């Protein structure tokens, strides 16, 4: 069996911490068994490894998420990178061609697909393993996992199995139909009929998707699929595949499963009431503070409230009202003020645009020891770096030099540059130019040994 974890979306339901470059699965607000902060994607990847599935797992993600994925999971994590964001059917089709034509996976191999951010216990992934047996026993086109509902939720889709008894050693049942996000009253009736929550986990034999791509006259070779990716329809796997499948089996999971997609659900799983600088008074009940700013925040006498602060903004909300944040922010676009990268992270401190069109952007850049920036240049901006802490080695137009706290480096547009941190480095970077965007980065090399070779 091979696993494909889908990691997409920009996510505004956890604004202001989540944005177009930092989706909810990357927020380090959970706690691992050693008491260290971890993100949803780190938790799931840890659990997959513990279940013995790590070597057979790939993550399908967008180009925008590659660096943060590498920062949190390491360079060796197997990624299948979408050329652009489309939807779940194109993403799964791309992953299927990669497994088939690049990895050489057999056509009768079971492929299980799941979201990268479910909040579950390790037993859930042992249930995922059983989907291989479900497909073999049932002969179904698709095998799904359905979660036993604990209450009549209006937020989830429902799988309605047929009425006959469970079959086979795995206890699967045939799927009768699906219902998307019913009213609470309808959800009560569905649960009485034995309906299960649809947790977005399904499995198929690789030949099922490969043959479908052939029928749709789409490429089955990965390189060609990547070239034609932008031509694929923006459609979900549910609409393109699941609704058209003739035989679907479902395996029931009775354990814990939660979707931590909103502040009120996420804070339920946070071990600490306060993350970052701040105070929540003792008379506050069920109130959480998540503060990414360098200023203290104090909450007095407010219960059932979430306060979240970041360089992107400040949210103060009753927990019950917090899911409305996406609709409130609809149509409001702004540049992300914080980004996590493979080498560390940066935070925008200030941004100014003058009447003559000139722009000035100030960043605080943190590079982890042993990490380096890519060897790159810019066409539309000059930069001035002030090293405020740490040590490292810099390359500027092929010339290597040591740098340390107190050094100031001027980088003209067109100049090739990179930096390697020998210990944690903090840099204040001031950009000036006509268009200060991340797209104005022309990368020549990424790995330090390759950069050194270019400078010999």
Question: What is the count of β-strands?
Answer: 30
Strand content: 25-35%
Task: Please mark out the parts with pLDDT under 50 across 5 or more consecutive residues, or reply none.
Answer: none
| Domains, number | 3
Amount of helix: 10-25%
User: Can you identify the CATH class of the largest domain?
Assistant: Alpha Beta
CATH architecture annotation name of the largest domain: Alpha-Beta Complex
Structural class: alpha+beta
| CATH fold node name of the largest domain | Spore Coat Polysaccharide Biosynthesis Protein SpsA, Chain A
- The CATH homologous superfamily of the largest domain is called Spore Coat Polysaccharide Biosynthesis Protein SpsA, Chain A
The total count of helices amounts to 12
Q: State the distance separating the first and last CA atoms.
A: 46 Å
Cα radius of gyration in angstroms: 24 Å
Major β-sheet strand ordering: 20-21-22-29-24-27
Domain Nucleotidyl transferase: 4-271
InterPro entries: Man6P_isomerase-2_C (IPR001538), Mannose-6P_isomerase_type2 (IPR051161), NTP_transferase_dom (IPR005835), Nucleotide-diphossugar_trans (IPR029044), RmlC-like_jellyroll (IPR014710), RmlC_Cupin_sf (IPR011051)
Protein name: Sugar phosphate nucleotidyltransferase
Domain Mannose-6-phosphate isomerase type II C-terminal: 341-444
What do you see in this structure?
InterPro entries: Man6P_isomerase-2_C, Mannose-6P_isomerase_type2, NTP_transferase_dom, Nucleotide-diphossugar_trans, RmlC-like_jellyroll, RmlC_Cupin_sf. This is Sugar phosphate nucleotidyltransferase. Residues 4-271 form the Nucleotidyl transferase domain. Residues 341-444 form the Mannose-6-phosphate isomerase type II C-terminal domain. It holds the Pfam family NTP_transferase. It contains 12 helices and 30 strands. It starts with a strand and ends with a helix. The chain is α+β, with helices and mostly antiparallel strands. It is 21% helix and 35% strand. The protein has a 6-stranded antiparallel β-sheet with strand order 20-21-22-29-24-27. Strands 8-11-9-10-12 form a 5-stranded mixed beta barrel, surrounded by 4 helices. Strands 14-16-18-19 form a 4-stranded mixed β-sheet, with no helix packed on it. It folds into 3 domains: 2-259, Spore Coat Polysaccharide Biosynthesis Protein SpsA, Chain A (Alpha-Beta Complex), CATH 3.90.550.10; 272-329, no CATH class; 343-455, Jelly Rolls (Sandwich). Helix 3 packs across helix 7 (206-215). The chain is globular and about 75 Å long.
